[in-house]
Amino acid sequence: MALLDHLVNAFVLTCEKVLFEKDDVISLIRLVDVFYAPRGKVQPTNTVENCPAIGMAVVAAVKFDPTAADGTKHQFSLKLVRPSGEEKDILQGPAEFELTTSPKHPMAPVGFNGLFSPVMVVPKQLGQHRLIAFIDGQEVCQTIFTLAEVEEPKL
Q1: Are 58 and 79 in contact (CB under 8 A)?
Q2: Which of 22, 60, 81, 120 is deepest in the core (most CB within 10 A)?
Q3: Sequence-distant (≥ 6) Cβ neighbours of residue 65 within 8 angstroms
Q4: What is the fold of 3-150?
Q5: Cβ-count burial of 45 within 10 angstroms (0-12 exposed, 13-18 middle, 19+ buried)?
Q6: Are the CB atoms for 151 and 40 separated by under 8 Å?
Q7: CA nearest 41: which of 97, 136, 122?
Q8: Are the beta carbons of 140 and 10 closer than 8 angstroms?
Q9: C-alpha angle with apex 130: 129 to 135, nearest 5 degrees?
Q10: How far is CA 89 from CA 57, 82, 86, in A?
Q11: Taking the C-alpha atoms of 126, 81, 53 and 16 in order, what is their torsion angle to the nearest 10 degrees?
Q12: Distance CA 140, CA 9 (A)
């Protein structure tokens, strides 16, 4: 049986911030699906050097039933796809994880939990952007966020 046949849950979420609780639990703050760039600043030629990037936190989880826990190593990767179809590897290379069970909870799902913060997106295009999650090069889930313009506050 292929690994993805054991998939029970997968998600990618965008939010403004995260908190690390004392008990090692991650709390998501302000789940967001629209991020704003200053009006007139979004240009296809923008780079990190000439335009402030939009910061966000990305949380991802991919879980498999415990029968998949065979000790094998796998790779998680995350790709940004802009409205034009331009693609960018968000992680600059895959994150590796191992499928093993927890001694305390041997029947719990196994897999990957990832927090990536800050993820900096250079505002090159307005519109819907996709974040696509992959396990071993195979797409497992995606989410959409929108990049829109907003007037800069006048001081």
Answers
A1: no
A2: 60
A3: 6, 8, 109, 110
A4: Immunoglobulin-like (2.60.40)
A5: exposed
A6: no
A7: 122
A8: yes
A9: 160
A10: 15, 12, 11
A11: 90
A12: 9
Q: Which two tokens stand for residue 59?
A: 């949380």
> What string of pLDDT tens digits covers the 155 residues of the chain?
688 899 999 999 999 888 888 888 888 888 999 999 888 878 888 777 777 889 999 999 999 999 999 999 999 999 999 999 999 999 989 999 999 998 899 999 999 999 998 899 999 999 999 999 999 999 999 999 999 988 766 66
The residue with tokens 């849950």 is 9
Q: Provide the pairing of β-strand 87-89 with 138-150.
A: unpaired
Quickly tell me which residue has 């071993």 as its tokens: 136
Q: What is the pLDDT of residue 141?
A: 97
Whether the CA torsion 85, 130, 132, 50 is positive or negative: it is positive
Lookup: tokens for 144: 């959409």
Q: Pairing state of beta strands 34-38 and 138-150?
A: parallel
114 with 76: CB under 8 angstroms? yes
pTM of the shown model: 0.89
Query: What pLDDT shows up at residue 128?
Result: 96
